[in-house]
Design a protein that fits this description.
With 331 residues, the protein is mainly alpha-helical. The chain contains 13 helices and no strands.
Length: 331
């Protein structure tokens, strides 16, 4: 089954993404229904607003993100130069020596030295391939999302017809609505917390005169879907950019310190206070889920790992026979 999910990534990933988004957005469709907007039209409005806002954000951030990606070689050289100016170049001497040895090997010096040829466009081709797969996945997910939102009532009717007794039908509908509400509340809360963290990071980077502060705020919001490891990755990226941008030790340390402070406040105070103890998950289980879904579906799987784990926890709490499983993934 595991290898089947990996092989069926092109099909399974859009379905899972669409399901998660449908849980998050279905309350909006229900609210539109209360003012007599049909489910099909309400779903079209919600999906249209989502696509437009996401497209605008991607268009706004695409250029600075691509610019920083192209500047990675220059960024590494700027970091090395800054560390030398601050007399902090001891730890990178071995790296520099290794780089010189690699350059000597690949330069073809000497008649007997084998030449190593690297295709210049291999990285670009790989990036374009990943981008193509991402666009296809998101396109399929958007189409599925519309149908999930528009056909929820029909699904409930089928669920009711499957139950022979009236009490069983009421229980099935009540359970479905309870799971849906809990999942929607969790996903909305986590998304709002991450958006708030992104805004705080962007504001901090702006005050500290870091370039492209909105980009780093968006990065923080996305990476925060990966607990623990996402914060570490963000601090690492901000540290590199800070070293390449500033030349004073105090200014260099200010940006990663501010980033770490924002993520620490969110992780240790804001999220536990808002989400509460009901959806607390074991750190070990979170890391295992991150490794599993990241291995199976790459970056998209890593970002979806914790939301999927939380949805599974809510399902275990709502179904009596699954209560013992839910207790196993609690801290």
């Amino acid at each position: 089954m595991v290898f089947g999910l990996g092989a069926a990534k092109v099909v399974a990933l859009p379905v899972v993404l669409a399901l998660c988004l449908s849980f998050l957005l279905s309350p909006v469709v229900h609210a539109l229904g209360r003012i007599r907007i049909p489910a099909g039209l309400g779903a079209a409005i919600v999906v249209g607003v989502l696509v437009a806002s996401t497209g605008y954000a991607a268009y706004t951030l695409a250029y600075p993100a691509a610019d920083w990606a192209e500047r990675i070689p220059d960024l590494v050289r700027d970091v090395e130069r800054t560390l030398r100016e601050l007399n902090l170049d001891k730890p990178i001497e071995s790296v520099s020596q290794a780089s010189r040895e690699v350059e000597e090997l690949t330069s073809g010096a000497g008649n007997d030295t084998p030449k190593v040829e690297v295709a210049g466009d291999s990285v670009t081709s790989a990036a374009l391939g990943e981008m193509r797969d991402l666009v296809v996945t998101l396109g399929v997910a958007v189409v599925l999302l519309y149908f999930f939102l528009a056909s929820e009532t029909a699904f409930l009717r089928k669920l009711v017809r499957m139950r022979p007794a009236l009490s069983s039908k009421k229980h099935a509908v009540a359970t479905f609505h309870r799971i849906q509400q809990d999942v929607a509340a969790y996903l909305f809360t986590i998304s709002a917390i991450n958006a708030g963290l992104g805004a705080a990071v962007a504001l901090s980077m702006h005050v500290l005169e870091m370039p492209n502060p909105v980009l780093w705020g968006a990065m923080a919001a996305i990476l925060n879907f990966i607990p623990y490891l996402g914060a570490l990755a963000g601090v690492f990226v901000i540290s590199l950019v800070s070293i390449a941008t500033f030349h004073d030790l105090g200014a260099i340390l200010a940006a990663p310190t501010a980033y770490f402070t924002c993520t620490a406040i969110e992780g240790y105070f804001v999220t536990p206070l808002i989400v509460g103890a009901r959806l607390r998950l074991s750190p070990v289980v979170i890391i295992v889920a991150f490794m599993f879904w990241g291995w199976l579906w790459g970056i998209a799987g890593a970002l979806l790992a914790v939301p999927l784990l939380a949805i599974f926890k809510i399902l275990c709490d709502s179904v009596e026979s699954l209560h013992p499983v839910g207790e196993l993934i609690e801290p």
